[in-house]
Amino acid sequence: MKILKTIVIRIFAVMGLFIDKSTDRDKVISLIKKLHPFSTGKDLIRIGGDQDGGYLIPDDLENIEACFSPGVGPTSWFEKHCLEYGMKVFMADNSVDGPAIENNEFNFVKKFIGSTNNENFMTLDYWVDSNIESKDSDLLLQMDIEGYEFLTIANLSDELLKRFRIIIIEFHDLDKLWHKTYYHLAEETFGKLLQNHTCAHIHPNNYLNIDKRKGVEIPIVAEFTFIRNDRVIEKTSQKVFPHPLDFDNSANDTPVSLPKQWYS
After folding, report:
1. Were 46 and a residue from 63, 200, 221, 245 both cysteine, which residue would form a disulfide, CB within 3.0 to 4.6 Å?
2. What whole-number distance in Å separates Cα of residue 176 and Cα of residue 22?
3. Domain extents for the chain?
């Protein structure tokens, strides 16, 4: 059996496929429970458009110095609204030549955000330090960087992480929580975020469906909103999903709701 197993593993490797033990179901469920969203005593408002690029965040935007928005999509309404709230706006993406909306107040750099600094990438710490003189002002982070979010957050300094009053991140490939390597990276990343922040909202992206296995439902891509704990007035479990201000990311795909396991 050992010889047969070795042969099968080598055949799959030649095909570019690798066999690994699945993450224990209880561990996946435990991580999901840690991410249950809470009402924080602040109403959720929608910033951005009614489809992709619009997000629900707590109504707590006063005196935030700047919005950092890595990952430039086909719309820049979220960033435009941040300008209207009095924030400086910084955008970064090496795959495009600029924001979707022309605005002289947007600060754009043609680089990806990641875990190192070179001609194509830069870290969040380097980006913020290069643009913000203050070391203690509150900031906002809105990040959609197609899978690089895990390494970016894992590499982020604790000092900078605490400065983000509100964090919105679209997490990708969540169905891979069943793969041990991915699970450990996700557990570390979410654990780091939850040290000083509370999950206030989750919205599945309906470009992709819900992964269902072992009695667990996981949105493959989902937008998470976090608020720093010192901004929380009261903390009670969110029980109503979708929120009345939630909209599908795409009108052309099947609507997707947050599975009850993620909030109940």
Report:
1. 245
2. 10
3. 20-262
